[in-house]
C-alpha cells in the first residue's frame, strides 16, 4: 500500500487503522500510530515546497494535530505507555503538520527521526 492510500484509510478511520481504533475503542494502537506517522513523514518529504496541497491531506494533517491531543488527553483515556511517549507522539504530530502545511521541516536536512 502506498503512503497516500494509507493516509486516506487513516483519515477516514477505516478498520485496523490508528484512527479506526482511537475514537470508538479508546485504544492507542502503537504499531498503527507508527505506520501513520512514518507515512506522514514520507508524504511531507514528497510534498515539501509544493503549493498545491490536496484538501483531504491538509484536513487529515490538521485533525492529527488538532483532534488527537484533545481526545487522548482526557483523564479517562487509557494510557498504558509512559506519559513521555504520548507527549512525544503529540509533538511529532505537531511537527509533521507544520512541515506539511509550511512546506519545510522544523529540522535540518538529514535529521534522524526517533522511532516512537
Can you describe this structure?
The chain has five helices and no strands. The chain is mostly helical and 116 residues long. The mean pLDDT is 92.
Write the layout of secondary structure elements.
Elements: H1 3-11, H2 18-25, H3 30-47, H4 55-72, H5 83-102
Can you give me a brief rundown of this structure?
By secondary structure, the chain is an all-alpha fold. The chain has helices spanning 3-11, 18-25, 30-47, 55-72, 83-102. It is globular.
What value does the average pLDDT take?
92
Our count of helices gives 5
Listing every helix as H and every strand as E from the N terminus to the C terminus, the arrangement reads HHHHH
Radius of gyration: 14 Å
What proportion strand? under 5%
Structural category: mainly alpha
| Separation of the first and last Cα atoms | 21 Å
**Largest sheet geometry:** none
Number of strands: 0
Indicate the overall shape. Answer: globular
Low-confidence stretches: none
Helix content: 55-70%
Keywords for this structure?
mainly alpha, 116 residues, single chain
Amino acid at each position: 500500500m502506498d503512503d497516500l492510500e494509507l493516509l486516506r484509510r487513516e483519515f477516514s478511520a477505516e478498520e485496523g487503522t490508528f484512527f479506526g481504533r482511537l475514537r470508538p475503542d479508546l485504544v492507542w494502537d502503537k504499531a498503527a500510530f507508527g505506520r501513520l506517522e512514518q507515512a506522514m513523514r514520507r508524504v511531507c518529504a514528497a510534498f515539501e515546497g509544493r503549493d498545491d496541497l490536496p484538501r483531504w491531506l491538509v484536513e487529515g494533517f490538521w485533525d492529527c494535530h488538532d483532534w488527537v491531543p484533545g481526545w487522548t488527553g482526557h483523564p479517562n483515556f487509557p494510557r498504558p505507555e509512559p506519559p513521555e511517549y504520548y507527549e512525544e507522539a503529540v509533538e511529532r504530530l505537531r511537527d509533521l503538520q507544520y512541515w506539511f502545511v509550511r512546506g519545510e521541516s522544523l529540522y535540518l536536512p538529514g535529521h534522524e527521526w526517533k522511532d516512537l
